[in-house]
Design brief:
Layout (H helix, E strand, L loop, with lengths): L2 H12 L10 H12 L2 H30 L8 H21 L9 H22 L6 H22 L7 H24 L1 H8 L1 H49 L15 H9 L3 H6 L1
Length: 280
């Protein structure tokens, strides 16, 4: 390794995190930019790439809300209302069971919980109409039906109380809602497939736009750096990665043809939605 390059590698290494677990290719490239005299540009590239990724996911969610409204799996209000209904339904089943409480003294609380749960469920059912829900929402509806059904079973197992008709009505709404949403999914297979894959479709549509933004950030960086400094950064980046690998610190590969700034841009825009992080 040429003497000047070896000195730059050492300077770059000194600017990296001391814990090897915190070192990755984008951190190496950021440090390289600083050694070559373009630390501010590295920070701008980093910020622009991070913002591009965040904006892409934000726009994805916005488009899903615009197209699917309450049924949107991200930001649709139906899922939040269903969750609240399910929570109230589960608590109502616990109250109706009489566990650590006298059922005669918790009738009002049981009425409030069952009433809230049933009304919330009806509101979602009315708002979504004859349109399929995604499977996550359906699972909540199934859980709600089980919870309210359990509350009915507990109330029927003891002497009749004034709250019994209300609990039965809540159970009918929960179970009826479950049967309705399952029936709609069965009768509308094309719309069911659409709502079940809406996230994948939204991500697929957004990816080219994010790629174009990443290419724009790269082009701006290359223009500001110029050919000579770009080549210096690529050479130093390659040398530092090789030096780390020689010590057993093997990072994700960065091809030599990757332009200066490309490692940061690629890393910061790779997992721009949470599902890509789960697969990584």
């Amino acid at each position: 390794m040429p003497e000047g390059l070896a000195e730059q590698v050492a300077r770059t290494r000194s600017n990296l995190p001391t814990n090897p677990a915190h070192i990755d290719a984008k951190e190496v490239e950021r440090a390289v930019f600083g050694v070559v005299g373009h630390g501010d540009l590295a920070l701008r590239i980093w910020a622009d790439a991070r913002d591009a990724a965040e904006n892409a996911w934000r726009e994805c969610r916005r488009r899903m809300r615009r197209e699917y409204g309450a049924r949107s799996p991200h930001g649709g209000w139906a899922i939040f209302v269903l969750f609240a209904a399910l929570l109230a339904g589960a608590v109502s089943a616990a109250v109706a069971s009489g566990f650590r409480s006298d059922p005669a003294q918790t009738e009002v609380l049981l009425a409030v919980l069952v009433g809230f749960s049933a009304l919330a469920d009806l509101m979602v059912l009315a708002a979504t109409g004859w349109r399929p829900w995604n499977w996550a929402a359906v699972r909540m509806q199934i859980g709600l039906a089980i919870a309210l059904g359990a509350a009915v079973a507990f109330q029927l197992s003891r002497p009749e109380m004034w709250v019994l008709p209300l609990v039965i009505a809540g159970g009918v709404i929960g179970v009826g809602g479950m049967l309705l949403v399952l029936l709609v999914r069965m009768l509308r297979p094309e719309e069911r497939l659409e709502i079940d894959t809406v996230i994948n479709v939204a991500v697929e549509r957004m990816q080219p736009e994010l790629d174009a933004r990443a290419a724009e950030i790269q082009a701006n960086a290359s223009e500001e750096l110029g050919v000579e400094d770009s080549a210096r950064i690529v050479a130093l980046r390659t040398a530092v990665l090789a030096d780390l690998a020689a010590e057993g610190i093997v990072l994700e590969p960065v091809p030599e043809q990757t332009p200066a700034g490309g490692a940061m841009i690629a890393a910061l825009t790779a997992h721009w939605h949470p599902y890509s992080r789960q697969k990584a």
